[in-house]
Amino acid sequence: MNRPRAAYLLAFPSGHSISPAMHEAAFVALGLGHRYHALNVPPSELPEAIEALRRPDVLGANVTIPHKETVPALLDRLTPAARAIGAVNTIVPTLQGLEGDNTDAEGFLAAMAELGVAPEGASSVVLGAGGAARAVVWALCCAGADVHIHNRSAARAAALADAMSEHGRVQVVDKSELEDRVRSADLVVNTTSVGMVGTAEGSSPLPEGWLPQHGAVIDLVYRPAETLLLRRAREAGGLVQNGLPMLVLQGAASFQRWLGRPAPVDVMRAAAVAALRGSD
Ligand code: NAP
């Protein structure tokens, strides 16, 4: 019953992803014979790519930029996470058709747990209000944190807070209150692309000196491995984590959805680290 099947990444462009390295390493480590292929799918070809996932030899798929928010309309059903977040990063073939799921929130909470930060009752500041922020804010709300969102475009922060208010305690923080919120936070999460290779690289989403006094800082960026925000927080003696653990743990959660068994997380982490090194 271990027929080799294939999993796919639907992206545009797909060349920079480390998901193929992580999943192929996991398949090899478990002797499964499955393959993982990254497909370059322009938006106009997404419906056709989704139809092709209905073949019986398909294990499942990941979805990333720019398709995460448009793909739900093409699927047969959505999990509560995918519906609440408004985006799909994992597609699972089921007897009821193609199911869209979102493992980013689960990956984020698992990464937080690795860092040793408990979300329940934590005062958190989320910088950004894009796709990654939606998963992080939903995860924090559902896990019982107090969430304060700050974004360059205030209207987008307000829309996100509004959309997530049914799931927990969430509010917008404007620039005048941000420094105080950050200093007293148990957790600050950067979900903006500021600091990422190619996007305001070498910059920080927070002015120098704005750091939690006793809390942790998670930066979802993993290229580079240490952003300016993380370096400042580490040098100030704080607990820090980059985006790699979340990336690996959302991939491990996708693996588990497709195969119904736990992923070899350490194998996937080592493959991700090697792939990132190779792409520097
Ligand atoms: P997105 O939907 O395009 O959102 C980008 C966010 O960054 C928005 O809040 C945007 O603010 C803000 N932003 C961009 N440039 C800015 C600047 N110069 N100054 C201030 N704010 C700026 O992107 P996304 O999908 O959420 O991804 C965001 C980051 O998270 C990326 O670095 C991505 O690699 C990372 N990520 C990591 C993981 C992981 O597993 N580690 C998962 C998902 C995403 P406006 O709304 O004002 O434009």
Notes on the structure:
This protein is α/β, with parallel strands linked by helices. It has helices at residues 19-29, 46-52, 80-85, 104-115, 131-142, 154-164, 175-184, 228-235, 244-259, 265-279, and strands at 6-11, 35-40, 58-63, 77-78, 90-94, 97-101, 123-127, 146-150, 169-172, 187-190, 216-219, 239-241. α1 runs antiparallel to α10 (265-279) and α9 (244-259) crosses α10 (265-279). The termini are far apart. The mean pLDDT is 96. Bound molecules: NADP nicotinamide-adenine-dinucleotide phosphate. Residues 104, 128-133, 151-153, 156, 191-194, 196, 199-200, 220-222, 243, 246-247, 250 line the site of NADP nicotinamide-adenine-dinucleotide phosphate.
Task: Give a quick precis of the structure.
This protein is of the alpha/beta class and about 280 residues long. It is built from ten helices and twelve strands.
